[in-house]
């Protein structure tokens, strides 16, 4: 089988239900998901922690599944069980206590592993902003919202693993409320 088909040479592509222009909102959304998945793949390549590697791999598969819902020109079937949102929350809850207490805004960066996760987080935020305009993706929005939170937490955890401190925003004040420990 040849990789190229020449079917898109005139600016169209196929969805389930017919051909559409490559600027169709579903095609635009799938392009954003592909970009996000690529950034997560790059972040995965920089990880040494087995927990993060397993989680990021699972997320890549989830993104493919979510993209499959956008392959329909009409109302898509609900192919993805959004229990994956709860899964992200569980992972955040497991990683967050392993990170230093968050008091100030932090700058994206630190280790290469963390910086790559921060880039994926910003792309995820763009995906979320753009998918607001795609009716077929509206039920998926909680996933992307939680995914960006996960990627932020994972980036902080990747810095812990690498032994590199988060870089706090120097001109900022303590903005996050801390929980007082019970004595």
UniProtKB/TrEMBL annotation:
The keyword Nucleotide-binding applies. Its EC number is 2.5.1.17. Residues 3-158 form the Cobalamin adenosyltransferase-like domain. InterPro entries: CblAdoTrfase-like, CblAdoTrfase-like_sf, PduO-typ. It catalyses: 2 cob(II)yrinate a,c diamide + reduced [electron-transfer flavoprotein] + 2 ATP = 2 adenosylcob(III)yrinate a,c-diamide + 2 triphosphate + oxidized [electron-transfer flavoprotein] + 3 H(+); 2 cob(II)alamin + reduced [electron-transfer flavoprotein] + 2 ATP = 2 adenosylcob(III)alamin + 2 triphosphate + oxidized [electron-transfer flavoprotein] + 3 H(+). It holds the Pfam family Cob_adeno_trans. Keywords: ATP-binding, Cobalamin biosynthesis, Nucleotide-binding, Transferase. GO terms for molecular function: corrinoid adenosyltransferase activity. It comes from the Bacteria. Signal peptide: none annotated. Pathway: Cofactor biosynthesis; adenosylcobalamin biosynthesis; adenosylcobalamin from cob(II)yrinate a,c-diamide: step 2/7. The keyword Transferase applies. Belongs to the Cob(I)alamin adenosyltransferase family. This is Corrinoid adenosyltransferase. The lineage of its organism: Bacteria, Bacillati, Bacillota, Bacilli, Bacillales.
């Amino acid at each position: 089988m040849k990789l190229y088909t020449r079917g898109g040479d005139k600016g169209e592509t196929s969805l389930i239900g017919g051909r559409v222009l490559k600027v169709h909102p579903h095609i635009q959304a799938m392009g954003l998901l592909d970009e996000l998945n690529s950034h997560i793949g790059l972040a995965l390549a920089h990880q040494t922690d087995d927990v993060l590697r397993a989680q990021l791999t699972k997320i890549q598969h989830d993104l493919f599944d979510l993209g499959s819902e956008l392959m329909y020109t009409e109302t898509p079937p609900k192919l993805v069980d959004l229990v994956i949102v709860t899964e992200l929350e569980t992972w955040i809850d497991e990683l967050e206590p392993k990170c230093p207490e968050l008091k100030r805004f932090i700058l994206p960066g630190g280790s290469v592993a963390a910086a790559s996760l921060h880039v994926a987080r910003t792309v995820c935020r763009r995906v979320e902003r753009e998918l607001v305009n795609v009716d077929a993706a509206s039920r998926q929005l909680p996933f992307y919202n939680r995914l960006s939170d996960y990627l932020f937490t994972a980036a902080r955890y990747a810095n812990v693993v690498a032994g590199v401190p988060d870089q706090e925003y120097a001109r900022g004040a303590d903005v996050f409320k801390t929980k007082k420990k019970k004595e």
